[in-house]
Q: What sequence folds into this?
């Protein structure tokens, strides 16, 4: 299979659980890209209403502490962004170099306008000055475009790298982080931070990069021009600017608070937009972090290129508009030439220019900051310097406010990388080779939070290699928690879990999960091909198609697959929506067979199937259980009867149901209690 055949999904939205499929209306957005991917990207959205925000005022006695905390946060934010900015230093430096050329051209252009008007009586000098002005205008336009395009390139590339970095860190987090425990975050909040807030960072980074050097250079040049023209007016201007800056700083502090609240409220709303993150249990259980990271990276690249193209166009538009206004210089040249030759009177020329300026007025309503600044270039040298100085001051204030608005987004992205996992791989963790599959749970106790009761309390269970053990019990009894501990998605509070006498805390996580397969009752499928779903674990390398077909036959899925329009290359749609329940279950079983684990966890599906599908799924499950250690969370009596031993699990305690009594009272008891069907 070629690299281009790897299917894509928007990671925040593409995973599926079976019961979601029946309870939601899916809105699908098909995204198209010129990037050479063979499959389209589907993005379903699931909104949830945000919780009410609490607006708490900080007591005045804590103000100093808050300020210190704010300064610390600001320093952390800058340190967090620093390596990404350094890695993109080339476009930043080139952009600043273009800004230096642009400022130099503008300075020369403004200073030569007076000489140009004095040269109007001399034809040859007029032509030479006009040529110089034309060259300066061209240099200003080209360098201005280069400045904006390069700095946007750096800003968007920074956001791309921040997104990939944060997403990779999120995939490394333990399961408790995704369940909002002890400093974690909800799936919607995570999705919003990585998408919307990361996009805000682009505007912030660009605004800062476009202010540090370009605006400083232009401000210095215009201040020098003003001092040369009128020291007195310059002194007045330089007195006003610091006062304005202090006011802007005050507004920036207030804006930052409002911006943070806005981010929090929208983050709650973005809980609509998640499907992948609730399926992180499946991702981690299948060692698929690298696969999902690769997919996210490719999608982030698409986003980066799309936004870069948009910003490049936006960078070109102001330069084109400037060219229109600089074009009025040619009218000045022509008018001056006509006046010098006596073929055009001054009054007529003034009327013409006035009409021209009024014709431009509608454009000024759309782009006042551009038109006013550059029309002032044409009028008077002193006025143009002052107007540009005011514009630059506004730009500096705007950039400061942009930073204050974007800073909370950077902080929240940074916070996601600082979560301290409790499930940490030891430096000396070992790789498991071939294993027999013996399992031992020794005095295992567990609770999700310190202030919650134990879900498991002193649990002991030995499962021999190749043995099938069934767990039955009411919902909330601890069965799923036991599975999470075996996959080491959590660590037990006390006790230990051993595989072939190896404590799982001493085993590399990827090695552990390679040997433990999971088939959940909530079938997780992706909007890719049949082959890609079966060979999910090999998506980062190359799927073995012969093996895919073999396991599909074993799982009794090959028959229906061959009837599909494109066979194993058929795209099953978002969440496998084109397949029936029985087909989805057989695909999940085929995926587990493709993994070929030594230990199998089977969380049996409870959904009803037609008799033919039920029979095919039952046969597939029997094949899946062969020659493996199997721990079944059983919901059907037929499955319970296949197990060598059966345990009733309730309130974190295990009670073995003797097999000799299964055909008598316990069987009837299990049926009457609704624990099995």
A:
């Amino acid at each position: 299979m070629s690299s281009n055949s790897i299917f894509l999904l928007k990671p925040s939205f593409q995973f599926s659980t079976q019961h979601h499929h029946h309870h939601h209306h899916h809105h699908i957005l098909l995204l198209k890209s010129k990037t050479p991917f063979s499959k389209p990207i589907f993005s379903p959205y699931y909104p949830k209403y945000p919780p009410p925000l609490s607006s708490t005022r900080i007591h005045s006695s804590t103000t100093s502490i808050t300020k210190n905390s704010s300064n610390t946060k600001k320093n952390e934010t800058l340190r967090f962004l620093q390596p990404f900015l350094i890695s993109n230093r080339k476009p930043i430096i080139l952009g600043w170099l273009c800004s230096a050329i642009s400022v130099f051209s503008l300075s020369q252009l403004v200073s030569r306008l007076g000489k140009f008007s004095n040269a109007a009586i001399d034809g040859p000098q007029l032509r030479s000055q006009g040529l110089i002005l034309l060259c300066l205008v061209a240099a200003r336009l080209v360098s201005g475009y280069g400045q904006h395009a390069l700095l946007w390139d750096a800003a968007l590339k920074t956001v791309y790298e921040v997104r990939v970095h944060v997403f990779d860190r999120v995939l490394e987090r333990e399961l408790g982080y995704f369940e909002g425990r002890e400093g974690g975050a909800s799936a919607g909040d995570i999705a919003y931070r990585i998408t919307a807030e990361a996009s805000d960072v682009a505007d912030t980074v660009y605004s800062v990069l476009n202010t540090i050097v370009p605006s400083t250079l232009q401000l210095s040049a215009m201040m020098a021009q003003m001092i040369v023209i009128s020291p007195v007016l310059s002194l007045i201007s330089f007195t006003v600017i610091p006062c304005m800056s202090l006011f802007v700083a005050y507004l920036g502090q207030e804006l930052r608070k409002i911006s943070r609240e806005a981010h929090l409220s929208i983050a709650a709303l973005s809980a609509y937009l998640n499907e992948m993150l609730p399926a992180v249990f499946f991702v981690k259980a299948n060692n698929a972090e690298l696969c999902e990271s690769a997919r996210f990276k490719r999608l982030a690249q698409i986003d980066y290129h799309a936004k870069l193209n948009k910003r490049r166009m936006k960078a070109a538009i102001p330069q084109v508009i400037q060219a229109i206004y600089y074009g009025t210089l040619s009218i000045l040249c022509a008018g001056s030439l006509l006046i010098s030759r006596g073929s055009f009177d001054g009054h007529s020329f003034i009327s013409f220019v006035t009409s021209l300026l009024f014709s431009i007025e509608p454009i000024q309503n759309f782009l006042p900051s551009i038109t006013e600044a550059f029309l002032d270039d044409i009028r008077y040298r002193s006025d143009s310097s002052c107007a540009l100085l005011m514009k630059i001051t506004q730009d500096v204030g705007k950039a400061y406010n942009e930073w204050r608005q974007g800073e909370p987004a950077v902080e929240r992205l940074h916070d996601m990388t600082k979560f301290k996992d409790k499930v940490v791989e030891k430096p000396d963790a070992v790789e498991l080779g071939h294993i027999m599959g013996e399992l031992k749970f020794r005095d295992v106790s567990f609770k999700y939070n310190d202030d919650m009761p134990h879900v498991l309390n002193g649990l002991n269970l030995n499962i021999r290699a190749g043995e099938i053990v069934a767990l039955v019990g009411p919902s909330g009894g601890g069965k799923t928690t036991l599975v999470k501990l075996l996959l080491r998605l959590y660590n037990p509070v006390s006790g230990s879990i051993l595989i072939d006498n190896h404590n799982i805390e001493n085993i590399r996580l990827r090695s552990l999960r390679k040997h433990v397969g999971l088939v959940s009752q909530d079938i997780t499928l992706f909007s890719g091909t049949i082959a890609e779903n079966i060979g999910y674990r090999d998506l980062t390398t190359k799927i073995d198609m012969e093996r895919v077909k073999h396991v599909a036959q074993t799982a009794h899925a090959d028959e229906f697959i061959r009837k599909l329009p494109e066979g194993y290359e058929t795209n099953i749609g978002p969440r496998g929506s084109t397949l029936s329940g029985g087909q989805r279950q057989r695909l999940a079983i085929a995926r587990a067979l493709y993994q070929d684990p030594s230990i199998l966890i089977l969380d049996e599906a409870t959904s009803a199937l037609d008799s033919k599908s039920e029979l095919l799924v039952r046969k597939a499950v029997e094949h899946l259980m062969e020659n493996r250690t199997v721990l079944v969370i059983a919901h059907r009596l037929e499955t319970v009867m296949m197990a060598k031993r059966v345990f009733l699990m309730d309130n974190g305690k295990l009670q073995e149901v003797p097999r000799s009594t299964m055909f008598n009272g316990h069987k009837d008891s299990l049926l009457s209690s609704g624990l099995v069907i």
Remarks:
- DSSP finds 22 helices and twelve strands in the chain.
- Residues 1-67, 261-275, 350-386 have pLDDT under 50 and may be disordered.
- The radius of gyration is 34 Å.
